[in-house]
Specification:
Strand order of the largest sheet: 1-2-3-4-5-7-6
CATH architecture: 3-Layer(aba) Sandwich
CATH topology: Aminopeptidase
Radius of gyration: 14 Å
CATH class: Alpha Beta
Number of strands: 7
Helix content: 10-25%
Amino acid sequence: MLAVLGDERVQTLVADRDGELVGQTTFGTSRDHDAPPTAGEVRSLFVRPAMWRGGVGSALLLRALEGLGAMGFAEATLWSFAANERANAFYERHCFTRDGSEQRDEVWAGLLEVRYRRALP
């Protein structure tokens, strides 16, 4: 089951299985200073490791992309750690490509993040 929580500009979807939280994603207006008004952002996507490769992440991501489209965005962006090969391969399977932007944030111990982008259907 998926449930939607949030407001018009930012929404959170949660996935549960038999009442147990197994994943969540938050999406909405982009926080990037260089984002055009046509770009929304997948702000987070987390799935319990025991559920990896079971379709939960794909279902959450696809629903987030649908939600961004319904909000009127033409494209989606997201940030991922450059060294997270598993997550990056997942995003690439879902038609995201790196757009060349990088950042380091103290909240993530200065780890390198790369921005991915894709058009919305």
